[in-house]
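Sample intake sheet
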Amino acid sequence: MNKKPILLVTDASGVYIPQRFIEEYASEWNLDNVAKESIEALKNVDDEFYWEAWIDVEQNATHEDGYVLIQDGDLWAVHVDDVEAFGNR
């Protein structure tokens, strides 16, 4: 990964953004600080804890190259050094 923000999933996926992240990208991210129950909940959009589980992932997932997740409509991987600037865009 380079240091630019990386678009992972567009907002066209709607409520399926969390599920798509788990299916398509989770293996590339460190989810050690995410509850296993949260990861399981995100496999089913109808799970009663789906959105709480997504918050757990958003707040705790990290990438070895220094990226974190930011959902601003679309889901982005943003380098920790650029989070503030990304929010001000």
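Comment: Residues 6-87 form one domain. The chain has one domain: 6-87.
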